[in-house]
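== Sequence, structure tokens ==
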Amino acid sequence: MIGRLNHVAIAVPDLQAAAAQYRDMLGANVGAPQDEPDHGVTVVFIELPNTKIELLYPLGDASPINGFLEKNPSGGIHHVCYEVDDIHAASARLVEKGARVLGGGEPKIGAHGKPVLFLHPKDFNGTLIELEQV
């Protein structure tokens, strides 16, 4: 069902510093920050030859990233994103198998302009999983 790894998301306490670190120290191709108000984050994508890194920074006081950074003040891996061909079919299959789809189970449009869902980390070895329809 899942396809390739789309990205690994890292929550960061300082978006500009993290982007500069990837660009200046690691020589990565770093995109411009983009606000995602529906998800409460500002993101920066780092393009790698085989996948992407997504830097996440809180957008507003209600951002879900605030709680993560309170528990992990230095930041850290927030989630991994896998591609799926049909997000509705993937969601139905996962629910049938006992997985919990967060946010009421309805896809939202993600940072790439495509439908996304998140799966409860307790159902996947403590890892928050994002599925993105390609």
Observations:
- The mean pLDDT is 96.
- The chain has one domain: 5-133.
- Residues 5-133 form a domain with the 2,3-Dihydroxybiphenyl 1,2-Dioxygenase; domain 1 fold (CATH 3.10.180.10).
